[in-house]
Design brief:
Layout (H helix, E strand, L loop, with lengths): L4 E9 L6 H9 L6 E2 L12 E2 L13 H5 L3 H17 L11 E6 L5 H13 L9 H5 L3 H10 L5 E2 L7 H15 L4 E8 L4 H9 L28 E9 H6 L6 E10 L12 H14 L8 E3 L6 H15 L8 E2 L2 H4 L6 H15 L1 E2 L22 E2 L4 E8 L3 E8 L3
Helix pairs in contact: 3-6, 7-13, 10-11
Amino acid sequence: MYERIVITGMGTVNPLGNSVSESWENAINGVSGLAPITQFDASNHLVKYACEVKDFDATQYLEAREIRRRDRFEILAAAAVSQALEQSGLEINDSNAGRIGTVVSAAIGGLISLEEGVQKVHGRGPRTVSPFLIPMLMPNGAAGLVGIDHGPKGPAFSVASACASGQDGIGMAWMMLRSGSIDVAIAGASEAVISATGVAAFDRLGAMSRRSPEEGTPQPFDKNRDGLVMGEGSGAIILETESHAKARGAEILAELAGYGASADAFHITAPSDTGAGGSKAIQVALQEAGANAGDVDYINAHGTGTQLNDKSETLAVKSALGEAAYSTPISSTKSMTGHMMGATGALETIFCVQAIRENRIPPTINYLEADPDCDLDNVPNEGRDHEVDLAITNAFGFGGHNAVLAIRNSI
């Protein structure tokens, strides 16, 4: 019999806000994070809008010298982790550092720094490249810096499984805690790839929406959806064994009850056309949580707003939950945050915790016309009051990586 794994702290910086409370309030109220791209000149790009982090002051978390030595995704991660540790009240010292693990993931890592480095070496010569470029671009950079910033000395690594990186990383932390190898985990993910190369590459892939805020985008599950919108940000949670959390008198926010993962083995970018892989991951997460299909009160969808993904996810949910799928609310908060790539799953885990704690469900905004292929309760346009005891969050990434977390009320 495994010990329960609980969440005692959360932190985030994302397009809806620079704290959990601000982000959640905007999510519940259906606020869009979409705005004109400011991080580079997008005038010659077909995509001119993204969901950027706004009004963020990195000096609240890092000294100016450290900011200059880190990529944007590492800076955002530092903020989210600091917030989560502060809420948890966890003190890291020599006596417990070796029992505290770190899993802060990224699907891509320091693309902005890499792009700048390439420009310098071809423009002004190799000697102009920053000596910090390698640690700035490493996908595991944020995870390593957590140890330097805060002192945990247990296992530390990053998971790269495309859009499933956040959920997979949190799931790996959950598994280490259940195994008894650590007592606490700092887990989450961070991503910042809104750059000229990042936006152009996803657009060339045919995955991006080119619409403006006035036209309404992204549109998950809507019949006329035309693609994802790129976002950025970071989310972090503090996980502990229940006995450890109680022994130090920590407030328990929720239980991380289950984790399921699978591979489509189908296509490098397209999801399985049957939804079988996603369905398997949902089923495993529920099995690990000791829950049945009818126990799920809310699903935070992967819901990117692409034609293939939303259809496949709907099939996956139907296959996993059966008839219960039609009475289970499912919403895509990516309709507001955009797709934060590997980091989205960490933020969506936080949103599930908030839904449980407040018994409220965020909406899928920009929902105008129902799609017969996506015929579940997509919580269109307005959040709602709804009792949530068990929530799941889906992530179905490029490469056929599927990861699902099950979060339960800790009471």
